[in-house]
Amino acid sequence: MNQKKTPSARTQAARATAERLTAQRKPKRTLVIVVLIAVFAVIAVGISIIAVSVTQSVSRTAEAAQSASVVRDNSHVLDEAPDGKVTLVEFLDFECEACGAFYPYVEQFREEYKGQITFVTRYFPIPSHFNSRNAAVAVEAASQQGAFEEMYKMMFELQSTWGESQEDLSPLFRTYAEQLGLDMAAYDTAVADPATLERVLQDYDEGVALGVDSTPTFFLNGEKMTIDSLDGFKAQLDAAIAQ
């Protein structure tokens, strides 16, 4: 008859050690699993947020493409010609150096063609410019108090002091509003209101739908302009008036 062998003391000790180590690993393994689940949950939420944001942006752009118009009823008009014969629309970015360089010439044209050309401004804050959207929101907030042109001019005339900054300069833009004597409670409310940013993005999305891919981009009587020189720019304005 075979007799069952009794484990040696060494074997029993080894088995006990193995069981103890296994018992110690279980809580750690459980912790790792919990941490991994939490990480995957955070990633999933992040992906969902990005997906929603992208979907909203695509939806907005699609809507703009379906009904794209160079000028809207709510577009900001700097000067209006009585006959409405010639309209010049500029899609601009307040942080764009090229827009800043064009600004004095646009002001010159406004003076020279006063009463002959309707000048319209639309927002096109380029995403790579850190404060371009903040600046546009500040100008739009000012416009709600009838101070669009004043804030528009201040942004360009002081652009060299704030452009290309990599920090949020909304507080600085607020001081511009104070200097203009605006109702600051109303200004702060407008800046914080999502509808103000949405108004800026409406211009941007429609600009994309119209083929705007850089700033400044000008449309003359609904047609996108090609500008090689200031003389050429002026010649196109003169030709539109002559027609």
Structure at a glance:
This protein is 61% helix and 9% strand. With 243 residues, it is of the alpha+beta class. The longest helix has 58 residues, at 9-66.
What does this 3D model show about the protein?
By secondary structure, the chain is of the alpha+beta class. It contains nine helices and five strands. The protein has helices spanning 9-66, 97-112, 132-143, 148-157, 159-162, 170-179, 184-192, 194-209, 230-242, and strands spanning 76-79, 87-92, 118-123, 217-220, 223-224. It has a five-stranded mixed β-sheet. Strand 4 (217-220) and strand 5 form a beta hairpin. Helix 3 crosses helix 7 (184-192) and helix 3 (132-143) packs across helix 8. It starts with 8 loop residues before the first helix and ends with a helix.
Give the second-level CATH assignment, the architecture of the largest domain.
3-Layer(aba) Sandwich
SSE ordering: HEEHEHHHHHHEEH
Biggest sheet, spatial arrangement of strands: 1-3-2-4-5
What's the count of strands? 5
The amount of helix comes to 55-70%
CATH topology of the largest domain: Glutaredoxin
What is the name of the CATH class of the largest domain?
Alpha Beta
**Which radius of gyration do the C-alpha atoms yield?**
31 Å
Compute the separation of the termini in Å.
Answer: 121 Å
